[in-house]
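Intended use. Records like the one below are meant for learning the mapping from a protein sequence to its folded structure. Do not use them to infer anything beyond what is encoded.
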Amino acid sequence: MKKIILASNNKGKIAEFNTMLDGIYQVVSMSDMQVEEVPETGLTFVENALIKARNASEQSGLPALSDDSGIVVDALNGEPGIYSARYAGNHGDDEANTQKLLDKMEDVADGKRTARFWCAIVFVEHANDPTPIIIQRGWEGEILRKKAGDNGFGYDPIFYVPTHGCASAELSPEIKNSISHRGKALVALLEELKA
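Structure written out for the chain above:
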């Protein structure tokens, strides 16, 4: 099976990608290949995903896959957006990030708490690939007033999924992967890769 590097060390993300790409690619992480992180200096999810994919491919010599994703809240003019993983200051502090978002949303009325998870996935065959595959998908929902559920990671416990009447963190991984922003983007990417 062909190896592909995922430009991430996020264990939750790596597990999701491995499950979804099983049988097509063997997904390795940046730490598996001793790839150093690069600053995410882009202003959009796509720019950051491209920066990370090119860096991972250059350092590993493998085709690279990167996603940049986050939560976009309408009442906060799109915050936390590209800063979702480091919203409260420290990168990857899910507890602090979630609490900061709950605090900022405290006075926002029901019905005005709309949000979406957004995902940009980029695939490059090599570091200088002039025709990267770029896929973007969203997942509509609302911000809850308190956490619910134990599955998933990041903002999953406070993201209400209207179609299923529960928080993202209350969904099984299989259901989440079939309806989430990343799940939908990966399905579209797989179609592109097969083509």
